[in-house]
Design brief:
The chain has 228 residues and is an alpha/beta fold. It is built from three helices and twelve strands. The strands form four sheets. Strands 4, 5, 6, 7, 8 and 9 form a six-stranded mixed beta sheet that branches. A two-stranded antiparallel ribbon has the order 1-10. It has a two-stranded antiparallel sheet with strand order 2-3. 38% of the residues are buried.
Length: 228
Amino acid sequence: MTIIAVFAAARLVEGDIVEDRRRNAVSCFFCKWSKYRDRVWVPVYISSSYSSSQKRVIRSAMKQIQDQTCIWFYEIYGWSRWYTRHLYIFSGNGCWSYIGRIWWTRQQKLSLSKNGCLRTGTIQHELLHALGFAHEHSRSDRDDYIQVLTNNINPGEERNFAKYKTNNLRTPYDFKSVMQYSNFAFSKNGLPTLVSRSNPSMRFGFAPSVSSNDILRVNRYYQCTAYL
């Protein structure tokens, strides 16, 4: 999981990131959510289309992050969503998010389809995108730790394995990160597209929830001093 801002047309890249031309490819000055009195305030509106049990899963995933960081996901209701800039969690087409806070719209969408996205790790993955973090395999130092097997990538999906200049927040590459792609992401033939250089047989990309490094990076990025 690394910090990055995306620069491209409005479309999905790396499977679940919304690109936007208003983002800078290297740095993102306005990506952070607002901090006040040692808390980072993230207003959230959860779509009424989810059942009560589905909402509990989403809230539980948010709480795991909230309990270990200074991030404060607080729900808004009713008319307040019409005048509050917020994260709108809804059941769209798949699982996807913007990277970091976007400022040109009141309602920042984050899609968690009822069909396949309501798992703790998946929910937290998209929430961390919204907080400003990209995929682990996009790290600037990724070539020291993983090998991208381009011959196994589905034609047209090569851009999903791009490497960016990132701020890694003085943390090591983390195969247990909830932001790590699986070995077989976008494979055209059932063979690995990503392998560990130190252990080619290692399986990764199936984290059930945020890792300790994921949490450390959130706390360093948002300067959550009470949690460092």
